[in-house]
Design goal:
By secondary structure, this protein is of the alpha/beta class. The protein is built from twelve helices and 13 strands. The two termini are 22 Å apart.
Length: 421
């Protein structure tokens, strides 16, 4: 794990702490959460995603999925009415999430006494900024996409001090419906071996999400005795990535893994690598399972590369019959069009949260308390969903143990197969 990546993690926590201190003060140390009930009959759930930049389509898919599930519950549980409010963890004109924006979004939720849940963030770096702020107030947080190992665990792929630095109280308020980058790394290693890869060259964007995924892959590959030729961070915004392409081509690696989020440089980088070596197989992590990377008309990879790129993404195993998934796809498509993989994650994040609220209040008949909702989230066992049946582990991770593999066809993601870690 690089010193740079550890520095990024520390900086994100510092940014969140600064926002917290500015907004509501701090007593320092690990402090318990008071079980303060929410008064009245209105509850607020926030969704925090990037509304600008390369991830805005995926962010909107999360919003649409969450909205669909809330509407299917008629936006109420017993005596409680539930309103959904959308927050933006990016800034206008930026290409990706922003730590200050993510912290400010979390602070907005903290300032609202009716807040009962927070769906987000989309990117792991943004979650690293928001978790400490929400945790101190005991606000239940369900991420539909943040997969960095260190947000929940100190296992392979985490940074020093993670995940403990993110939780100023003993209560684990953060859970996620997607498997971690550790699971994704195991799936990638297995997939690459199955497809005949003898060694892999890893490229990441040097950002929190990309480096977390890159480190998880290299550490898992090492433990599995799978050769990683090299790991290299590229600089987003470069005019030309031809030199990196040539370096990869000369390395002898027959496969490449691109671990990044879809800032506008990932596609040119991938193109340069493919052009330098016409025979190299290209794999990408879930951060690139978005139209801004796959669709040439949106600045993504050229159509001629479609058949050479495979992307792992959560969203459930589509190779088996799942009535709940079929119902979701039918309802979502009718209202919003064909879903991106992350739409199902947004839908399930809301479904999981509403189920916890329902159990914590005995179907809305009892007083709602944030701590009880958090406890209900962690008590989730053998939960049937559009993503498959899963439980929530004590650290906040899902028990789902695989990733979907997607091909790129005419600029769009098409599900191919499921790979278990």
């Amino acid at each position: 794990m690089s010193a740079g990546r550890a520095t990024v993690a520390v900086a994100l926590v510092a940014a969140a702490s600064a926002a917290l201190l500015a907004g509501c003060g701090s007593s320092g140390g690990k402090t318990p959460i008071d079980a303060i009930p929410i008064r009245g009959h209105w509850l607020t759930i926030y969704v925090s995603v990037p509304r600008d930049g390369a991830s805005q389509e995926a962010g909107q898919a999360v919003i649409d999925g969450a909205t669909l599930e809330l509407d299917q519950n008629h936006a109420h549980i017993g005596r409680y009415r539930i309103r959904l409010k959308v927050l933006d963890d990016s800034t206008p004109g930026s290409d990706v999430w922003n730590a200050a924006a993510a912290a400010a979004a979390a602070q907005t939720a903290v300032a609202n006494p009716t807040t009962i849940g927070y769906i987000g963030d989309f990117n792991s770096g943004a979650s690293a900024a928001s978790i400490p702020i929400l945790n101190r107030q005991g606000i239940p947080q369900v991420s539909p996409a943040s997969s960095a190992v260190g947000l929940t665990s100190d296992g392979l792929g985490s940074s020093p001090g993670e995940p403990y630095a993110f939780y100023p109280t003993p209560l684990r308020t953060f859970v996620r419906v997607v498997p971690s980058d550790g699971v994704q790394a195991q799936a990638q290693v297995r997939l690459q071996r199955q497809l005949g890869c003898g060694s892999t060259y890893v490229l990441d964007d040097g950002e929190y999400d990309g480096e977390e995924a890159s480190t998880a892959f290299t550490q898992v590959a090492s433990a599995a005795h799978y050769p990683v030729v090299a790991t290299q961070s590229y600089v987003p915004g470069e005019a030309n990535y031809g030199a990196i392409g040539e370096t990869v081509a000369q390395s002898g690696a027959d496969c490449v893994l691109v671990a990044a989020i879809p800032e506008r440089s990932a596609a040119p980088l991938t193109t340069a690598v493919a052009e330098a070596d016409p025979h190299v197989h290209i794999f990408a992590t879930s951060g690139l399972a978005e139209p801004s990377f796959t669709d040439h008309s949106l600045g993504g990879i050229p159509a001629k590369l479609d058949s050479r790129v495979l992307i792992t993404a959560p969203g459930g195993d589509q190779s088996t019959r799942n009535p709940l998934r079929q119902a979701f796809v039918k309802a979502y498509t009718s209202r919003f069009g064909a879903p991106l993989p992350v739409a199902a994650d947004g839908y399930e994040a809301m479904r999981l949260l509403l189920g916890a609220i329902r159990r914590a209040t005995h179907s809305g008949r009892e007083q709602v308390e944030r701590v009880k909702v958090v406890q209900a989230l962690h008590a989730t066992r053998h939960h049937a969903s559009a993503l498959g049946t899963y439980s929530i582990r004590p650290d906040g991770d899902t028990s789902i143990d695989g990733y979907g593999v997607y091909r790129v066809v005419d600029g769009a993601l098409r599900y191919w197969r499921w790979v278990t870690a």
